[in-house]
Amino acid sequence: MVMGRRRPGSYVCGVDAAMDVIGGKWKVLILWALAVRPHRFGELRRELHGVTEKVLAAHLRELEADGIVHREEYDEVPPHVEYSLTPKGVTLNAALEPLGVWGQRNVLASATAGEVGEDDDVALITRGA
Fold this sequence. Notes:
This protein is mainly α. 51% of the residues lie in helices and 11% in strands. The chain is built from 5 helices and 3 strands. It has helices at residues 14-22, 27-36, 41-47, 53-65, 87-113; strands at residues 39-40, 69-74, 80-85. Strands 1-3-2 form a 3-stranded antiparallel β-sheet. A hairpin with a 5-residue loop joins strand 2 and strand 3. The two termini are 34 Å apart.
C-alpha cells in the first residue's frame, strides 16, 4: 500500500500519516533491526521473537510499498532476498530516535523505579503543551 492511499483525505496531521506507516506491533522493531544492517527474512524472524512469518511478510510488503524498506532479490542458488532501509527509511528511523529516547527515560526508567499504577496521578497531555 502506497502512503496516501491507505486512508485518502482522512489524515488530520503529519503524525497521523506517519503513525499509519509505522503502525503495528512489529514495524518499528523491523526498522530498528534494519538500521543496524540489512537482513534476510529468516534473520529478521529470528531477531524479532514472537513475530509470525505471515505478519513479518505483510509488514515488510507494506514498508516496501511505502518506500521505507528495499527488497533486493539475489539470483543465486539457492535464491535469497535481503531487506534494507531506503533513504526514506533512514530518515524515518532518525525521526523515531527522539521517541526512543523518550521511551527510555519515561517508560523504561519508570519500570525500574516502579511501574505507574492504575490509581497513580499522571499528567494528561494537552494540545499545545
